[in-house]
Each structure stands twice: as C-alpha cells, then as structure tokens.
Amino acid sequence: MIDFDESRQMALSLWPRLNRDPFCDGLPDEVLAWALAIQAIPAPTFDEAARADYVAGQFNALGLRDVVIDERFNVYGRLAASSFRTGAAVMVVAHTDTVFPAATDLTIREAGEDIYGPGLGDNSLGVAGLLGVAAGLRRLGIPLRRDVWFVATSREEGLGDLGGMRMAFERLRGEVSAVVNIEGMAYGHVYHEGIAVRRLHIVAQAEGGHSWAHYGNASAIHGLMRLGAAIAEINPPQKPRTTLNIGVIGGGQSVNTIASHAEMWLDMRSETAAELRKLEESVRRHIKQMTADDLAFRVDVVGDRPAGRIPAEHGLVRLALDVLDRMGVRGTLATGSTDGNIPLAAGCPTVTLGVTRGSNAHRIDEYIERAPIADGVRQLLCVVAALTVDSTG
Predict the structure, then answer these.
(1) What does the domain layout of the chain look like in residue ranges?
(2) Buried/exposed 290-314: b ≥16 CB within 10 Å, e otherwise
(3) What pLDDT score does 15 carry?
(4) Which of 97, 128, 193, 389 could form a disulfide with 45 if both were Cys (CB 3.0 to 4.6 A apart)?
(5) What would the pLDDT profile of 191-223 be if each residue is shown by its tens digit?
(6) How confident is the model over 307-345, as pLDDT tens digits?
(7) Is 196-305 CATH 3.30.70.360?
(8) pTM of the model
C-alpha cells in the first residue's frame, strides 16, 4: 500500500527542484504541442482507434514498456520501478474520446491567451498531460519505488459509459493502489467523489397512421411529449445534489403522419446512489401511468456509472491540495462523473486533476487558457512523482 503521508512530505522536497529544473520550462510547451496534435485526430466515442495509435507511438518514443492497445482502444504503457519495487503501482489516466462527430471541423484558432478548438480541453490536453507526466518522470532521473501505469482510455463520454476505464481498471486492479485521472480543464480542482449516473433510452410505440384519415389514433410523439413534460416537472433535491436532463429526442416519419415511434434519452445524476434510485423510480412511475392499450413504452438502461468517494481528509486529497498550495492556488474540492468513478467505486484512492483552465466543454467554441499550463504540468508531475519516486534515490 502507499503511505500518502510520506508522499506529502516527498512533494514538499520535490517542489523546489520541479520549480527550477530547465526541463520543466520546456515541458509545458511540449504538452501543448501534443494537445494540438491529438486534437487534430477525430475520436468520437467508440471510434478512438486513430488517436490510440498516435498515443501508442508517443508511449514508445518515451521509452515506456509493455505498450499495447486493447480491443476497446485503451492504450497502456508502463514506467518500471527500480529493482526494489514495492508492488503498489500508480495508475495515471486520461480519456481519448470526444463528443464530436468525426466530420466536425477541428480547426484551431487563438484569441489572445485563449486557444479554441472542439475537444481541445476535453480531453486532448488531458491526454497530453499524461504524456507530459511520463516524459517528466523519465527526465527527473530519480529511481522509482513502484511502477507507473499510463493509460489513455476510450469510451468515457456519453453512451461510452466509462467502458474503457472499466476494462482498463479490471486489467490492472490487482497491482494498482492509487489512481490519478487527468481532465484538461480542471486545474485548481481536486475531484475526490464520483457521482452516480443513470441514463435511460425511452421508446414510445403506437399504431400511428395518416394525420387526417386516422385522426384519433394514438401518437407515439404525443405520448412521449406528455411523458417528457411530466419528467420535466420533477423537482430533484438540491441536497444531495440531483439532476435530470432530456438530452435527445426523435421520432416520426413526416409532418402528416401520426407517429408510430418516438424516443428520448434521459440523463439522471446524483451525489448519492439512493437519491438516484428515487429519481428513477419517479420517472418509471410516470411511464407506467401513461402506458395504455394503444401506447407502449420500452425502457433500456444505456448508462450506469457507479458512485464512489474518498473523504476530503484522505492523504491523496491532501497531497493534491498541498501541491496546489505550493503554487499559491487554493484548491477546490469537487465532485463529478469521470473515469475516476470506476476505481473510486472499487475502493481505490483516486483523484482527478487538471492541466489548465478553460470553458465551453462539449461545444464547438470550447477553449483553453495557455498561461496556467506550466503550473498545471508541474502540479501533475509533482503529485505523481511524490507517489512513486524513492526518497533515498
């Protein structure tokens, strides 16, 4: 197991070196260059193969061992411990997929210190930060007391349902004692709690027909609209924070056809699994109430992200906050839905950290701030190094 209090002391001793070594001055520029190269490769969820090939090439160039791409396009690479390894490995993770279709215009533009590009912050810069940590650890030249597994995961977004991380963590969980997950635009935050998420695909089916000749027949669209209106009136609690969102709707054949088919995708989230269950039960009650002989509903669960957390007082959380404090940044504790949910739900200490600040994630006008990247890279490197390097080296 990892002694996180010892790691906090290690971070204090490492920080002066990380803050003055010449290689650290050049590493942030390399990380930005990697981010721009990664962002230029389309990677919709379930179609991350090309980006995975690029990352594998960079892993090999950095001298990582056991580089491999699995059947879900996760990319693995290992930085090996010295001969006195403890056996408690650290896993460093960032997801490669984006919410944007492959045909999206990925052109980059700059405005002052801001750099715009779809998927640049979420999560091309996160993957670049992963590469930066691997490069930085090798250049430090300090012996490692444990292996570091670098994993670029797939299927984090949307209907991917953390499928890449599920497979990757299952593959490595027997040797991993801590996880550091990287999100490009989360700098200054320390995510220590993964919220529970359920996603439903709700399909309405009816007889339908011609809008004039068969007027009065049940319409799948009308039925789905009534259900959607009822769901929208549900008032989830603010504590524990719980939300719902109808993200996509569709159906029908033409303007003059009574629809026989309609569908919607519903996203539900909560800080507690119990409250999420209550919300889903409420939705399902509305579905049952609106089901009739001429109107049927089918519900498929298309997303089920488990909840998990470590307390704010945990040594890994304190380590991350300590490092931010050394940079004059007051870290903010945060909750969210990331690849970190999977190890947290399994009881493995996990934090999610960022590389820079930015905004408009999942939008075409997404952007990152250039200036914080240097500190973001130093933060990541200091946290991972504190968990892995040998104090006697």
Answers:
(1) 4-194+307-388, 196-305
(2) eeeeebebeeeeebebbbbbbeeeb
(3) 85
(4) 97
(5) 999 999 999 999 999 999 999 999 999 999 999
(6) 999 999 999 999 999 999 999 999 999 999 999 999 999
(7) yes
(8) 0.92
